[in-house]
Design goal:
Elements lengths: L1 E4 L11 E4 L8 H17 L2 E7 L3 H6 L9 H11 L3 E5 L3 H4 L3 H12 L2 E7 L3 E2 L5 E2 H6 L1 H4 L2 E5 L3 E2 L2 E2 L2 H9 L3 H8 L3 E8 L4 H4 L5 E5 L9 E9 L2 E10 L11 E6 L10 E12 L6 H22 L2
Parallel strand pairs: 1-4, 2-3, 2-5, 3-4, 5-8
Antiparallel strand pairs: 6-7, 9-10, 11-12, 11-16, 12-15, 13-14, 13-16, 14-15
Length: 311
C-alpha cells in the first residue's frame, strides 16, 4: 500500500481510482464493506483502489475541541495495509478545506486532482462546506461528469446499524466483546511503558504502566483480559484501568497491565493492548491483603478465559 500526502505540492497522483469515502474512525465492519467494494471494483476494472483519510477527526475542526477516537491515523494505515488496499490519500481537514464548496470538492479535488472514477460511500455521506453535498448530488453527477457511484446499505447486527458512535459507547461502558464484534477485531490502544509507583511489583504482580500516545476512547474502569505483542511474541495478561482507589483518593486514571508468564524489562517499549474480556469493575479494598487475594482470583478467572478467546 502506498501513502500520498495531498498537502504536499509535489505529491504524485497515480492513475484512475476506485475510492471509498467516509470518516473511518474504527474502520469497523461497515467501513470495511465500503473499502472492499472499492477494491472489488478496482480489481474488476483494472484501476487502483483507494481511501481518502483526514489526518484528524473532522469534529476537531468543527467543534474546536479535543475528540477521543477509536483508532489513530497510524492504526488506520496498518488496518488498511492488511486489507490489501493500493493507495491512501491523506489530507488535513482545516478551515480552508472545510470551507470548500461541494462542487469544488467533487469536481476539482476528487475528479480532476485525484482521478477518481468510482466512488463508494454510505447512505448518509456528506461533503463540502457545511456538509451541503449529499449522496443525491453524487448520484446526479454521474452521467454528466463521467464517474460511477456505489451506494452501500448500512451493515447491521442484532441491535441495529453498526456505527463508530455505537462502538465508542460500548468501549466506554466496558462492553469490549460487543465492540470487537462490530469492529471485526479486538479494540486496541497503543502507548509507551513508563515508570509507575511499583505497587504491583510489591504485591507480587508487576505491571507495565501505559502512557497512551493518542487520545483513545478509554474502556470503563475495571479489570480486563488483554493481549499484547512484545518482541514479536504474543502474551495474554490482565489489565486494570482505574485510579487505584485502595491507595489513592481521587487519583488519576492509569492503565496497568500484568503479562502472564513474562519475565523481562518493558520500560520504554511501545506497547499495544487488545481488549478481549471485561471481568469486573474497579473496587476499593480494606487493605493490601484483600487486594492480593482478589488479584489472584482475577488471574485464575482470566487465565481460564485465555483458552476460550484463543480458540
Amino acid at each position: 500500500m502506498k501513502i500520498i500526502d495531498c498537502d504536499q505540492d509535489d505529491a504524485f497522483f497515480p492513475g484512475d481510482q476506485s475510492m471509498a469515502l467516509g470518516n473511518f474512525d474504527g474502520i469497523h465492519l461497515g467501513h470495511q464493506a465500503l473499502i472492499r467494494c472499492a477494491m472489488d471494483y478496482a480489481h474488476q476494472e483494472k484501476i487502483l483502489s483507494s481511501v481518502l483519510l483526514f489526518k484528524q477527526h473532522t469534529l476537531e475542526e468543527i467543534s474546536h475541541s479535543p475528540v477521543s477516537h477509536l483508532t489513530s491515523l497510524k492504526d488506520k494505515l496498518e488496518i488498511l495495509d492488511r486489507m490489501g488496499l493500493d493507495y491512501v490519500f491523506l489530507k488535513t481537514f482545516d478551515h480552508d478545506f472545510m470551507s470548500i464548496d461541494k462542487k469544488d470538492f467533487l469536481e476539482d479535488f476528487l475528479l480532476d486532482r485525484l482521478h477518481v472514477k468510482h466512488i463508494v460511500c454510505g447512505q448518509d455521506y456528506s461533503y463540502g462546506r457545511l456538509a451541503q453535498g449529499r449522496v443525491s448530488d453524487l448520484l446526479e453527477g454521474q452521467d454528466r461528469l463521467g464517474y460511477q457511484v456505489s451506494l452501500l446499505p448500512y451493515v447491521e447486527d442484532g441491535k441495529g446499524r453498526i456505527s463508530s458512535s455505537r462502538i465508542r459507547e460500548a468501549v466506554a461502558e466496558g462492553r469490549v466483546e460487543e465492540a470487537q464484534a462490530m469492529l471485526g477485531r479486538p479494540y486496541r490502544m497503543t502507548g509507551q511503558v513508563v515508570p509507575g509507583a511499583q505497587r504491583g511489583r510489591d504485591l507480587g504482580f508487576p505491571t507495565a504502566n501505559i502512557d497512551l500516545d493518542f487520545p483513545y476512547i478509554l474502556p470503563a474502569n475495571g479489570v480486563y483480559l488483554t493481549r499484547s505483542t512484545v518482541g514479536g511474541k504474543t502474551y495474554y495478561g490482565m489489565t486494570n484501568i482505574g485510579s487505584n482507589p485502595t491507595f489513592v483518593l481521587d487519583g488519576p486514571v492509569k492503565i496497568e497491565c500484568h503479562l502472564f508468564d513474562f519475565h523481562g524489562d518493558l520500560y520504554g517499549q511501545v506497547f499495544n493492548l487488545q481488549f478481549l474480556y471485561f471481568e469486573r469493575g474497579d473496587l476499593v479494598f480494606q487493605n493490601a491483603e484483600e487486594l492480593i487475594e482478589q488479584i489472584k482470583n482475577d488471574e485464575r478467572i482470566l487465565r481460564s478465559m485465555v483458552r476460550k478467546v484463543s480458540g
